[in-house]
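Limitations

Structures in this collection are predictions, not experimental determinations, and the ligand pose is part of the prediction. Treat each record accordingly. The example that follows, with adenosine-5'-triphosphate as the small molecule, is included so readers can see exactly what is and is not provided: the inputs are given verbatim, and the output is the predicted complex.
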Amino acid sequence: MPHQAPTTSAEGEQGTFAIASDGGGDPAIRLRGLRKEFGQVHAVDGVDLDIPPGEFFSMLGPSGSGKTTVLRMIAGFELPTAGTIELHGRDVSRLAPFDRDVNTVFQDYALFPHMTVQQNVEYGLRVKRVPRAERRQRAKEALDTVRLGEFGERKPDQLSGGQRQRVALARALVNRPKVLLLDEPLGALDLKLRHTMQTELKQIQRDVGITFIFVTHDQDEALTMSDRIAVFNAGRIEQVGSPVEVYERPASAFVAGFVGTSNLLSGGGAENIIGKPGVFSIRPEKIRVDADLSKPADVGETSATGTVTDTVYAGATVRYEVTLDAGGQLSVVRQNTAEPADFEGGRVRLSWRHEHSFRVPEAG
Ligand SMILES: Nc1ncnc2c1ncn2[C@@H]1O[C@H](COP(=O)(O)OP(=O)(O)OP(=O)(O)O)[C@@H](O)[C@H]1O
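Predicted complex:
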């Protein structure tokens, strides 16, 4: 389902991440002042967020940053200590899970082992006393959606891990929820299958047009799959944006460090090289490395000299650790197009376009 590219507005560093009104329709999810305390632990510490219908939205953050607790509050498994949750304009903050138009897919997708795939998918409808013919039809549609139309008669133990995860997805989709919550659903899969499922899940989301809210601590996964990402840190959202915005323009040193690898230049090094005080972020792949020190920097480029202290070969890429003469350390990542250049112990000139080093607020 196509959706309008949302405009985010951030009021200060920890302000409201809201979608500019498009003049019609409520967001699929609206969170205001959401808090959750477990005794002394402030698991969620004031979250404001709007998610428009049809979006693939990821909550990304380190372990313990509060993303699962936000998801569980949306699902109704936890009640907020303060704040409100609206689903399509309806305040559901204090409703039981089954009174909310959401479904959750967990990492440990407990399927009933004695039931067939078809029966597993039908189960929720049976509980709701949906008539048999409709149940069959809807389960068949859900299985077709997750490309398991031919597997209805199998038992879960006759399926691969990825197929079982797709049954779990079908079991949620069969209820036709307005919002689907996914809590690290690919976490139990090996890396290769995980990559395949990332592409499939994204395609399924496009096909069904349901709002997906996806919790992960894997930044690659969030960058690959999402329309927008919220980056969590210590119970708060540090930034909401498209993958490109979050990666290319991190709003804080925390986001720069958590989403991808970032170099941070500060103190004397920053003043000497960039000419301004503050903390500056530079992505390692934006930096060129050159053994010819006599070559002047190109127009529009910043440059610095240094010594290569370490070379890390990683197959498709090679990383150089460079100690700068002006103070500080930078990692440089280059595509391994030919034999990796051997700069180890050597003197090099690093250069990057001015706009690729940008200032980030120090405290996350
Ligand atoms: N039921 C609970 N009782 C007490 N503390 C809890 C409970 N649930 C979560 N917490 C605490 O709240 C904080 C946020 O936890 P949460 O599970 O939301 O983080 P997360 O970002 O999803 O982490 P992970 O990626 O490890 O799942 C943590 O400090 C956690 O220990």
